[in-house]
Design goal:
about 775 residues; alpha+beta; Immunoglobulin-like; Beta-galactosidase, Chain A, domain 5; 9-stranded antiparallel beta sheet; 7-stranded antiparallel beta sheet; 17 helices; globular
C-alpha cells in the first residue's frame, strides 16, 4: 500500500478538510485556523464559591465572584498548608507485619484490623490540610440600576471578565493569573472619565493574620501564619485617578482605569526545608511588574497560555445552545442531553484547569486543583493516590499538555524519598511505597484507619504515569531520568509480595481494595497494578539496556502473582475469595483497573475477563459521585459502548444541586465536578472519558471512533495525541470517519484501526500522513 508523505522539505500545501487549514511543510509547522471560542458565561454574579470562576497559573489560584457593588476575589498559593516537615513512618510497624498477615490468612479479619490500627499506622494518624490564603475585596460606590450584566471565563485567553452598564457608563473588569510574571492582575475600566470610584482591601480567614497599608498609599500587604509556614501577599494599584489610605483601605477616586497586581509566597522550599523568605520574594516579584502597563502583562500572559491551549481543538457541532448561560445549559442538559458543544466545552475546560493548576515548576493539582476557600477543606484538599490524584492526569498527554505532567513526576521523586523510609519501617523492604493519601510534607505511611488506609498500590499506580509519558512522547532521555523511580517501586513489590499459604500464589497482604471490604489479603487491584509495573519496568530496562538481571527476576514473578478470577455471578472478582455482592453499588470499582487506565484486560487478549469486568460494572450500577461517574465513562468507552458512556455523561453534566435541596454527583454551576463537595478529578476524568470515545491507543494501535455515541454523529478533532508519539487530526460525519491526518513526532511504526479496517506503515519523524475515511492514503 502506498502512503503519501507530506514532505517537510518541499513547499507543499496539504489541505486538511476538517477546516483546520493548511500545513506549511517547509516550516514543519501546522497552522490552525482561529480556534473556536469556548467560554463559561453567566448573566448574574456568583452567590457562592461553586458559582465563582477559577483562574490560576499553577502556583496562584483565584476564584472570581463578579459582584457589582462589591467584587470578591478569593485567592490561594499552592504551598500554604498546615503542619511542618515530618516523617510519618512508624518505626515499630514492621514488627507486626507477619502477625497481621497470619491473622488475615486464618480469616481473623477483626483481630487483624485492630492490630493494624493499634500498631501499624502512621505517626500521627492524620495528615494536614491545604489552606486558603486570602481575600481581595473591591467595593464600588453608587453602583445600582445595573443593566447588560455579563460574567465570562474565556478559555481562549484564560481571562475572567465582568461587564455591565450603570446610567449609561460601561464598566469592565478583567482578572488573569500570569505564569511568566507570577501575579494576579485585575484591570478595571469605565467608559467615562472619573466614573470609577472604589475601596480596596485585603483580608484572610486565618486567626493568625495581619493587614498592613504601606506609606505610599498604593500597596497593601496581608500576612498569614499556619504552623511553621508563613505567607506574605502584597498588592499594588496603578491608576489615573487618586488614591488615599482610609482606615486600612485603599480608596481610588475619579478614575477611568486602574490595575491591581497581587502576588503571594510562603517560606516553603520543599518538604524538608522551610527557610524561604517570602518577605523578600514577594516585593521582588511585584517590582518587576508594578509599573508595567496592563496591556503588556495581558499580552505576555495570553502568548504564554495559548502556546499550550491552542495545540488542540475539539468540536461536536453546535446547535445554538452555546449562546445560553452555562448554568442554564447544565440544567437543560439534565432534562434533554442534546448540547454537543457542552461536551467539547467540558474537555476544553479540563484543559484550561490543567494549565491553571499544574505547570512545570509548580506542585501537582490536589483534590481541588489549587482552589480552596476553607481552613478545613473536605478530605484535606490533599493528594489522594487510590485514584483521585492519578485521575487528575489521565487526559494530560492525550489532550496535548505533556509538560503539565511534570509536577506529578516531581511529586513522585519526593515520595521515593519519604516512601523509602516507610518501606523499610513498615515492610522491612527496599525500594519505596506510598499509601492512599499524601500531603505537602510527602507523608507516605498508612493514615486514618486500617480498613482503608493500608492500600498498597500507590507507588505502582504513580509509576505508571512515568511509563505512559514515555509511551506518548517516546522520550528516552526522560525515561532514563525517571526509570529509577519505576525500578525502585518494582523492587519494593518484589520483596513485599509473599506466597499465600492457601493458594501458593504471590499476593499483596495486608492491603485494601479502595475503599471497600476492609483489610484483606490479596485484593485484585493490587495484583493488576503490580503486574503492570513489573511489565513496564521490564520494557524500560530493555529500552535502556540496563538492569537485565532484575528484569529477569520480575519476569519470573509475574506468572506467580494471583491472577484475575471470574466469580460465581459472572463477575470479575474483587478479592481472592469469591465474595462479591451483586447488590453492592459502591462508588469504587477498583478491581477494573486493568480495563482502564490499565490494559491487561481487553477484548483482544482476555475477552472472558473483559465480559466479567463488564458484569461487575453492571452490578455496581450507573450512579455515583462525580469522579466515580467519570471513571465509569472511561470503562464504558473501553467496553466500546459509546451510548452507555454518554448516558453517564448525562449524569456527570447534570446539576449537582437538585431542586429538592439535595446535592449529588454531577456539576456545579461553574462546571466544577461534585463529589460532592467539589473535587476536580471528575473534570479531568470526564474529559478523559470523552476522548476515549473517539480515540484509543492502549493496545499498540490507534483505534479511531472506538466508542462513538449515537448522540455525537459529527465532529472533528485536531492535535489529539496517541501513544507512540503520534498527533492526529480527523473528522466524522453521520457517524462515519471522513478524514485522518497523522503527524509522526518520533518516527516508528504506526497502526491505524477503524472498525474492521487496519493499516500499518512506517513513519519518519516530522512527517505527516493523510488518509480518507476508509484509511486509504491521500
Amino acid at each position: 500500500m502506498k502512503i503519501q508523505i507530506v514532505n517537510n522539505t518541499i513547499k507543499t500545501l496539504c489541505v486538511f478538510v476538517l477546516g483546520f487549514t493548511l500545513v506549511n511543510c517547509e516550516n514543519s509547522k501546522v497552522e490552525v485556523q482561529q480556534k473556536a471560542e469556548f467560554k463559561l458565561q453567566y448573566d448574574e454574579p456568583a452567590k457562592k464559591w461553586t458559582e465563582a470562576l477559577p483562574v490560576g497559573n499553577g502556583t496562584l489560584g483565584a476564584m472570581i465572584y463578579g459582584g457589582v457593588a462589591q467584587e470578591h476575589i478569593q485567592f490561594n498559593e499552592e504551598t500554604l498548608w498546615r503542619g511542618q516537615p515530618h516523617d510519618y513512618s512508624n518505626e515499630d510497624a514492621g514488627n507486626y507485619l507477619g502477625e497481621i498477615r497470619q491473622l488475615l490468612t486464618e480469616g481473623k479479619s477483626r483481630e487483624a484490623h485492630k492490630l493494624a490500627q493499634d500498631e501499624f499506622m502512621s505517626e500521627p494518624l492524620k495528615q494536614v490540610h491545604y489552606q486558603p490564603f486570602g481575600d481581595m475585596y473591591i467595593s464600588f460606590k453608587n453602583h445600582e440600576n445595573v443593566t447588560n450584566y455579563k460574567r465570562v471565563l474565556n478559555l481562549n485567553d484564560a481571562i475572567s471578565s465582568v461587564s455591565y452598564t450603570i446610567n449609561g457608563v460601561e464598566y469592565k473588569r478583567e482578572v488573569l493569573v500570569s505564569y511568566p510574571d507570577h501575579i494576579i492582575a485585575v484591570n478595571l475600566t469605565s467608559s467615562t472619565d472619573k466614573a470609577l470610584n472604589f475601596d480596596l482591601w485585603l483580608d484572610a480567614i486565618h486567626e493568625d493574620k495581619s493587614v498592613i497599608t504601606s506609606n505610599d498609599s498604593q500597596t497593601l500587604v496581608v500576612k498569614v501564619k499556619d504552623g511553621v509556614l508563613r505567607g506574605v501577599s502584597t498588592l499594588k494599584v496603578n491608576t489615573n485617578g487618586t488614591i488615599k489610605n482610609v482606615a486600612g483601605k485603599l480608596q481610588v477616586s475619579e478614575a477611568s482605569n486602574a490595575t491591581i497586581y497581587l502576588t503571594a509566597a510562603t517560606n516553603y522550599i520543599d518538604f524538608k526545608d522551610v527557610s524561604g523568605e517570602p518577605e523578600k520574594i514577594v516585593p521582588e516579584t511585584l517590582a518587576k511588574v508594578s509599573n508595567t502597563n496592563y496591556d503588556t502583562v495581558k499580552a505576555k500572559h495570553i502568548d504564554d497560555y495559548q502556546k499550550l491551549y491552542n495545540r488542540f481543538q475539539l468540536s461536536f457541532g453546535d446547535n445554538g445552545k452555546s449562546k445560553n448561560p452555562t448554568d442554564q445549559r447544565i440544567s437543560d442538559f439534565s432534562e434533554t442531553p442534546n448540547d454537543p458543544q457542552l461536551l467539547a466545552l467540558y474537555v476544553e475546560y479540563a484543559r484550561y484547569l490543567t494549565i491553571a493548576s499544574s505547570r512545570p515548576g509548580t506542585k501537582p493539582a490536589t483534590l481541588q486543583g489549587i482552589w480552596n476557600d476553607k481552613l478545613t477543606p473536605p478530605w484535606f484538599s490533599s493528594y489522594t493516590t487510590n485514584i483521585n490524584l492519578e485521575m487528575n492526569y489521565w487526559p494530560v498527554e492525550m489532550y496535548n499538555l505533556s509538560e503539565c505532567h511534570e509536577p506529578l513526576f516531581d511529586l513522585i521523586e519526593d515520595l521515593s524519598v519519604t516512601g523509602a523510609k516507610v518501606a523499610k519501617a513498615h515492610y522491612n523492604a527496599d525500594g519505596w511505597i506510598v499509601h492512599h493519601n499524601v500531603d505537602i510534607w510527602r507523608g507516605a505511611a498508612p493514615v486514618n484507619a486500617s480498613h482503608h488506609g493500608i492500600w498498597l498500590g500507590g507507588a505502582a499506580w504513580l509509576s505508571s504515569h512515568i511509563w505512559e509519558h514515555y509511551l506518548y512522547t517516546q522520550d528516552k532521555v526522560f525515561l532514563e531520568k525517571r526509570y529509577p523511580l519505576m525500578r525502585n517501586a518494582a523492587l519494593f513489590y518484589s520483596q513485599f509480595l509473599y506466597e499465600d499459604p492457601n493458594t501458593g500464589y504471590l499476593i499483596s497482604s495486608p492491603s485494601n481494595s479502595p475503599e471497600i471490604g476492609g483489610l484483606v489479603a490479596g485484593p485484585t487491584m493490587d495484583h493488576q497494578l503490580i503486574r503492570a509495573l513489573f511489565r513496564s519496568t521490564i520494557e524500560a530496562s530493555k529500552l535502556l539496556n540496563t538492569d537485565q538481571e532484575f528484569a529477569s527476576t520480575l519476569k519470573t514473578m509475574i506468572d506467580k502473582i494471583a491472577p484475575n478470577q471470574i466469580g460465581k455471578h459472572g463477575q470479575l472478582q474483587e478479592w481472592m475469595e469469591d465474595k462479591d455482592d451483586p447488590e453492592n453499588h459502591h462508588r469504587h470499582v477498583s478491581h477494573l483497573w486493568a480495563v482502564h487506565p490499565g490494559k491487561e484486560i481487553n477484548y483482544e487478549d482476555t475477552p472472558d475477563s473483559m465480559e466479567a469486568a463488564k458484569q461487575s460494572l453492571l452490578y455496581r450500577g450507573d450512579n455515583g459521585t462525580g469522579w466515580s461517574l467519570a471513571w465509569k465513562i472511561n470503562f464504558w468507552s473501553r467496553f466500546r459502548d459509546g451510548d452507555h458512556a454518554y448516558k453517564l455523561l448525562h449524569k456527570l453534566l447534570s446539576p449537582a444541586e437538585r431542586p429538592n435541596g439535595k446535592v449529588g454527583g454531577g456539576s456545579y454551576p461553574n462546571l466544577f465536578d461534585a463529589h460532592p463537595p467539589f473535587q476536580i478529578d471528575g473534570n479531568f476524568g470526564g474529559a478523559s472519558g470523552i476522548l476515549e470515545m473517539i480515540l484509543q491507543s492502549h493496545l499498540d494501535k490507534i483505534e479511531l471512533l472506538p466508542a462513538l455515541p449515537s448522540a455525537l454523529p459529527q465532529g472533528r478533532v485536531s492535535g489529539i495525541v496517541a501513544r507512540g508519539g503520534f498527533e492526529l487530526s480527523f473528522s466524522w460525519e453521520n457517524s462515519e470517519l471522513k478524514n485522518v491526518e497523522v503527524l509522526s513526532k518520533a518516527g516508528g511504526k504506526c497502526t491505524l484501526s477503524y472498525r474492521n479496517r487496519h493499516i500499518e506503515f512506517n513513519t519518519s519523524k516530522g512527517e505527516t500522513y493523510t488518509f480518507d475515511g476508509n484509511l486509504n492514503s491521500k
